[in-house]
Amino acid sequence: MDIVKDGHMQVGDMPGTIGALLRTLRKRRKMTLERLSELTGISVSSLSRIENTQLGLTIEKVELLAKALEIAPEDLIARKPAPDHDGGGGFGVGSDGGVIGAGRSPRRVSYRRLAVDRERTRGSKASSYRELNLKHLFEPDSSRALDCMQVAIESISIWESEFVRHPGEKIIYVLRGDVLIYCEGHAPLVLETGDALFMDGSMWHSTVAAHGPPAELLVTYYHGPDADQGVFETQVFTPESWAALQAA
């Protein structure tokens, strides 16, 4: 097996080494040793020796190679190719050994699942709608009961915003700025930087920045096993229709 000693990765002469994986990933990307050398600053001869398990790797070289191959450093150290997809949502392994991923029906799930969502790739997953700019942490996954989003929200009138209600529970944590939150059955709330709110998603609710520049939120949403049985609804309220709802 590979071992780390004094900051260096010692590569053994056996199948499944980092060198073998490096060659597989390079060829998968139709990349020559010369091109990989240009991207990393590692000489062609050193790259050839690494691929042939004749030269160890420093952690710095692992990071350079991972960046050039557009993978996470731990994917290279794992010594087996990751599937050819964006991988943002991660995956789980069922107790029967099967893989559970986005688009598959939930089934028995091991409690050893783990996924990493990289900040450097999160921008490609951003979406904007009305006053909101959303970046999902991890891709939607039917086997996972939690969703998390980084949200930038503009300062607009609450009556210009879109109210929502949906199954599950939500926690809103204010990373920066002040926000105004309207929740059905409750008085309006102002949250400041560092404040957090827990709520049931089944109430009509909307959030806008209270004033000035956009506020930044971290929103965690627990939808649980019954999420598919509910409906995500949206509606725009006027002061009059909101007052009527509150009085009902």
Structure write-up:
With 248 residues, the chain is α+β, with helices and mostly antiparallel strands. It has seven helices and 16 strands. The protein has helices spanning 18-28, 33-40, 44-51, 59-69, 73-77, 119-122, 239-247; strands at 3-5, 8-10, 57-58, 92-93, 99-100, 126-129, 132-137, 146-153, 163-165, 169-176, 179-183, 189-191, 196-200, 205-209, 215-222, 233-235. The strands form five sheets. Strands 6-7-8-15-10-13 form a six-stranded antiparallel β-sheet, with no helix packed on it. The protein has a three-stranded antiparallel β-sheet with strand order 1-2-3. It is elongated, with a radius of gyration of 24 Å.
List keywords for this structure.
three-stranded antiparallel β-sheet; single chain; disordered N terminus; 23% helix; 2 domains; 28% strand; 434 Repressor (Amino-terminal Domain); alpha+beta; six-stranded antiparallel β-sheet; Jelly Rolls; 248 residues; 7 helices
In short:
This protein has 248 residues and is an alpha+beta fold. 23% of the residues lie in helices and 28% in strands.
CATH architecture of the largest domain: Sandwich
CATH homologous superfamily heading of the largest domain:
Jelly Rolls
Q: Please tell me the total number of domains.
A: 2
SSE succession:
EEHHHEHHEEHEEEEEEEEEEEH
Number of helices: 7
- Main beta-sheet annotation: 6 strands, antiparallel
Silhouette? elongated
Mean pLDDT: 77
Broad structural category: alpha+beta
The separation of the N and C termini measures: 68 Å
Q: How many distinct beta strands? A: 16
Poorly predicted runs: 1-15, 84-109
Please give the order of strands in the largest beta sheet.
6-7-8-15-10-13
Helix content: 10-25%
Oligomeric assembly: single chain
Q: In percent, how much strand structure appears in the residues? A: 25-35%
Radius of gyration: 24 Å
